[in-house]
User: Fold these one by one.
Assistant:
Number 1:
Amino acid sequence: MSEIRILLVDDHPVVRAGLRAMLTDFEGFTVVAEAPEGAAAIKEIQRLQALGEPLDVVLMDLQMGAGMDGVTATRAIKGMPSAPPVLILTTYDTDADILAAVEAGASGYMLKDAPPEQIRAAVQQAAAGQTALAPEVAARLLGRIRNPQPVLSPREVQLLELLATGMSNKAMSKQLFISEATVKTHLVHIYDKLGVDNRTAAIAIATQRRIIRTAG
Amino acid sequence: MSEIRILLVDDHPVVRAGLRAMLTDFEGFTVVAEAPEGAAAIKEIQRLQALGEPLDVVLMDLQMGAGMDGVTATRAIKGMPSAPPVLILTTYDTDADILAAVEAGASGYMLKDAPPEQIRAAVQQAAAGQTALAPEVAARLLGRIRNPQPVLSPREVQLLELLATGMSNKAMSKQLFISEATVKTHLVHIYDKLGVDNRTAAIAIATQRRIIRTAG
DNA sequence: CCCACAGTCAACCGTTTGGTTGATACGGCG
DNA sequence: CGCCGTATCAACCAAACGGTTGACTGTGGG
């Protein structure tokens, strides 16, 4: 069988070195290029295609410190002609990450703390055009399908964002030019949809689900 | 010059492989042992000392999925006779992490996304008994010294962390085996030190100041 | 030895928030 | 057209939270 040609995309040199060592230790895997973020990855793919040396699989991290993030990059790659399979390999398994990656066209989703041979198996499957999901991720996706999460309205997200800055109901009502009563109504709906019963828990869940993002 | 003998402590096989590859690529570095978490690391150190093959430096991650966390392990190691230098190598640079690690006796604090030669230099410095801080980390510590923020006690930080998960005062009191009255006292002190007057604002400020880290 | 501080707890009181019910208005969709 | 979801507001009550005062303990530094 021929070699599997791989592009690594991760902003951490340590992780790239680890994946390279882990994969090239075994027959049949070649890391032909690396990129620290999405835009550079796309350039690499185009460069390799121009050379007539196409890729068999892209190993993509989602969290990039700077530059194009993994989901955007995946979407861009899958929009290219003769796009290679993209296997997501990331640290976290939050709902938003997984869904966004799958929507963007990823062929699989692995967690970085997976045992090496599981990662290698996933790469092989992705290169063969198959789908590869880590067990934890698969379970989470199934759970999501079985009981779908309610969608917050734009106004509710807006409230949530103000909430996360620590504002009181009265402060939010002034900011949004609505009455406190309306603020409370919105909050009750938010708690309902997120399955919580107070504002701090709402912020915690919304942050986890990446509905809002906190100051960095 | 003689070789620098290293123990790697990280729960991710990928990261361990990356560090091993990155360090052993260069003359003078030998990875003599690895451990996925703190307790195993301590056992390794004892084993090597019993063999008369002491370590020159321990490379320690702080976030461990399971087992003994990095700060606890560092404290335990620095309590041993003829303890090796411990160099912290982690993903985040929150105040809480840095302070706790330094208090626990770490000789340095590097971020995983640092360039390879910076990491190697830090390992060399630590092995030589010197201190090594990543520029970002050093800047943060200096900023902390220049305009000192009121320091939260460990207990207060602990409360803050529970707070950020959305727990009520009653829930926190049960979790920490203290009364609600005590929880309220702590919270008042926290609000005071952070200059806020409610729990959501406290979480917002604490997140901004990187006193706590939210789910990610 | 004494002081300061962290941590613990209690009682009190006013304010804020959570939860409910009900009402109005507007837009889109079958 | 009627229904549903979104957004708006009001009134009400119970529960949680915020703020204060005061008190006790243990630990560590001057």
Note: The CA atoms of residues 152 and 190 of chain A lie 7 Å apart.
Number 2:
Amino acid sequence: MHCSRLFLPTLKGDQPRLTPWTGMMVRAGMIRFAGDGDCYVLPAGRRVFDNIGCLFQTAFSRLGAHELLFHGHDAFALLLQEIKSYKMLPFAVQRRKISTTPVRRPSFGLAFAQHRLCLEMTAVAESTSDIGQIESTLREYIHSLLSDLGICSSLVSASPGEEQWMLVLPYDKGDTDWYECNGCGQKALDWCVQVARDDMPVKTETSELKRLYTPGASTMAILCEQVGIPLEATLKTMVYVREDGMPVLAMVRGDREVDVRRLTSAAGGSCRAATQAEIEEITGAPCGFAGPCNLPHKALLVLDSALAHASGLVAGANEADYHLGGLVPGRDFIPDVISTIRKATPQDRCVCGCTMTSHRGFGLITGSRFILTGMKVQGRSGTLQELPALSVSVDVNRVVEATARFALDERGFNWPKSVAPFRCAVIAVTVREASVLEQASKIYADLQRAGLHTLLDDRDVGLGAKMADSDLLGIPIRMLVGPQGLQHGYVEMACRTGGEREQVKLSEAVDLVLKKVQPDIQTI
RNA sequence: CGGGGCGUAGCGCAGUUUGGUAGCGCACCAGCUUUGGGAGCUGGGGGCCCCGGGUUCAAGUCCCGGCGCCCCGACCA
């Protein structure tokens, strides 16, 4: 590519309001942001996207995943339509798609853009062990790819069982929280980490049920102040509505919060917070006095496991300005479900009893194993059976951002060679001298012919700018063709990684470059 | 919901106290000199100073009212 014809708008100064690596990508003319936070990927950036995407596609292809192109359906609909017999198994497909996540506030980064490029692989197989085999091979490939890209991610569990997982990258401004046990090593997302039952309600002198007059105590803090009890001795009742319209009362200890995702799996359907009007309708009392007893309507009572054996609690009475004291779950009300529905906190302990460390970051790759319901295929024995399936999705935006983050240095990016937007930059020191441009063009043509993505810098700008741009983009090899060297038949060669510059004979230059730029990430 | 800040060229900002020709840096355009680490000089283009009303001979600036954006704090019944 001739630099003078490439849309490569590099910039000089620091970019405000961006992380260093994102700002550097903007400076390098790889990306631009729209006002709403959406991202334009420019030609140089697109090459990085393509290179990284290609590594994963190759990994998928190694597992036999066929490359498809389609939108608006999920891959299973196709499998459902096409797989007729076990003889076609295992069967896998892959595609690229744009995943759209609504963002509340725009944040200017690749990782949190509203539209992100994802690579998705979907596989079905005859048995769960076959799927497990595919999954573990794929994880191995992915693990080695990520480490070649310089990314240190960790594998966390993303479901209460082991069937969903996520590769996450620590980052303090991430959108995902997870916990790691300091003892058994359990790593899981915050809403599915298994925590020890934490039943430490304060024993009160009496557990005799009584009605307390608590005027205006519409929050736990006011209530505790009035009644003179600690938050730990209260039972907080949060009102939700299940997707089918069923009211759900979620009860946790007063100092804890309800985790909606945990609640969703406990209540057997997706739940949303009730509006104020709904709360009044469901509990028959103003907002702030909800409780599990004396409800005017049927509601699903979901109790956090930590309170299952508590007694002497204080909870709302479903009546304005009244609470109930001395409440005992199981005696004064019967919960429909007892489950861990509170949000995990760093104070929680792992099921093994050890302390846990909380982490924040973002997910790069997600995977999940499941049985494909509604799809039955004739097996060896002749009977119809449901198929185990695997779905893995690589968020290319995020992998690119993570790679950029670790490749960043003072001058720009020091990409792995396989990722760099060009393998080699041929810089014509001045384009005003015909012989210089001519020699540079010749070397460029030879390298292109040899199959090497090369950038010929033929712009009429100062040498400093050309060198700076080459470093900024992170092109692994830079060849300088200038009048001084040409007089003696030499060009200068330098690597992005090390500073040493070599004078090489014009006639040997091309061969030397070809020797130096063997790809550093083996894909096949 | 409360407190604070901001709104002026594509971007980043000064100018508002004390009303008087619309400014600076970067970017952009033209030309010349340059070219071994982001060049220099000269010239140039570009504005509903967030919107609406008011005071005034005169408002980016003062007054009233909107709108929008950002930060901090509170917000689990």
Note: The first helix of chain A runs from residue 20 to 27.
